[in-house]
Design brief:
about 180 residues; two-stranded antiparallel ribbon; mainly alpha; single chain
């Protein structure tokens, strides 16, 4: 893999993730300075309930998403930021599925016990399960993102195997 494409694609992903975090973090800051942040709240309304009691607050104003959603998004960005410290950016292999299944199961369990009326989940449980899921998701997403950007920039590296009637395999390579 070309190092510059790998680093550029990683930095682009980190910048996009930080920008996305800014979109839901900015409204309370705007509100604090007397600027209407309503457009940002409306933008996130379809994906989050935005309940005041279940949201982090800055300057007394809630973020545009709840604590679980913001923890997923912040966790994702944190995971991206720490990814190169734990994995080589050149390594585009996926982690074992267990590393996303456990956090996903924990988040679903946290939601389900509350939804089923078994017990009330807490602000902390929603934030922790969301954050852990966000971090783990980044470790699956970064290699996919780097591979995608590399393929877009360089074109696909495919090997097409064609079998004719005599069962002989003919290999056609499309490499740059």
């Amino acid at each position: 893999m070309r190092k510059d494409i790998v680093i550029d694609s990683y930095l682009l992903l980190l910048a996009l993730s930080l920008l996305f975090d800014l979109l839901f973090t900015l409204p309370p800051i705007l509100e604090h300075f007397g600027i209407n942040g309503g457009l940002f709240y409306k933008f996130f309304q379809p994906v989050c309930h935005q309940m005041d009691s279940r949201s982090f607050h800055i300057f007394g104003y809630k973020l545009a998403v709840c604590s679980r959603c913001s923890s997923i998004y912040y966790g994702f960005t944190l995971g991206i930021a720490f990814y190169p410290l734990l994995n080589s950016l050149d390594n585009v292999s996926m982690p074992k599925l267990i590393f996303i299944m456990i956090p996903l199961f924990a988040l679903i369990a946290d939601f389900s016990v509350n939804f089923a009326g078994i017990t009330q989940n807490t602000f902390s449980s929603r934030s922790i399960t969301g954050g852990i899921l966000g971090i783990s998701t980044a470790f699956f997403f970064v290699p996919v993102w780097i591979s995608l950007i590399q393929e877009i920039k360089n074109g696909p590296n495919r090997q097409l195997i064609v079998t004719d009637n005599s069962d002989k395999k003919v290999s056609l390579k499309n490499e740059k």
